[in-house]
Design brief:
Radius of gyration: 16 Å
Number of domains: 1
Strand content: under 5%
Largest sheet: none
Distance between the termini: 48 Å
CATH superfamily: Heme oxygenase-like
InterPro entries: Haem_Oase-like (IPR016053), Haem_Oase-like_multi-hlx (IPR016084)
Pfam families: Heme_oxygenase
Helix content: 55-70%
GO biological process, one term: heme oxidation
Protein name: Heme oxygenase
GO molecular function: heme oxygenase (decyclizing) activity
Order of helices and strands: HHHHHHHH
Shape: globular
Length: about 200
């Protein structure tokens, strides 16, 4: 891997997606889980919406990335959300496809952009976990396993993902596709949250 090209690509990816990322974080439903006064219903509402995203990604994006992300199957998150919703006494029901619903052809680069957003949420989850634990009393073993992410390995999981992402980009010169996929995903999640968040 050529270190001189990887760092600028990752910097460019972060900068090019910064506005979409911020817009999503500033939505009331997103901000609710970082609020010290978060309620059980706000927390459950966020989890249900995020479950749509993770289930869609695992069903429709994971198959496109086999062999590219070495530890792909260890990155499944939907079962954690299901466990948390069960603790909250919430029925799961069917899920929508907020990310892939309108996509016909998905290139590998675009799929990696989608994965960049979903994996990145694990980093923020560690901060949210502390708030949910303090405000509602849930922890990694009981009611907040999704936000616990990969536990103490969250940082290394993220670095490993960025390494695989950077290597694929360097070999295939598809930075614009990855950036497009990431911005598309931030915006798709944003639209899903705005349309379906409890009022």
């Amino acid at each position: 891997m050529n270190g001189t090209t990887t760092v600028p690509f990752l910097d460019n990816l972060r900068q090019a997606t910064a506005k979409s990322h911020t817009d999503l974080e500033e939505l009331p439903i997103s901000a609710s889980v970082t609020d010290t006064n978060v309620t059980n219903s706000e927390y459950a509402g966020y989890l249900k919406l995020m479950r749509d995203v993770t289930a869609d990604t695992e069903e429709n994006i994971f198959p496109l990335l086999e062999g590219i992300i070495p530890d792909l199957m260890q990155r499944s998150k939907t079962h954690h959300i299901d466990a948390d919703l069960a603790v909250l006494g919430i029925e799961i029901g069917t899920h929508s496809r907020p990310v892939t619903r309108n996509l016909k052809e998905i290139s590998t680069g675009f799929a990696l952009g989608i994965m960049y957003v979903v994996e990145g949420s694990s980093l923020g989850g560690r901060v949210i976990l502390k708030n949910i634990s303090a405000a509602l009393g849930y922890d990694a073993e009981n009611g907040a396993s999704y936000f616990a992410g990969y536990g103490g390995q969250t940082g290394s999981y993220w670095k490993n993902f960025l390494s695989a992402l950077s290597q694929y980009e360097a070999e295939n010169q598809c930075a614009s596709e990855i950036i497009e996929g990431a911005n598309f995903t931030f915006d798709a999640i944003n639209a899903h949250f705005r349309s379906n968040a409890p009022q």
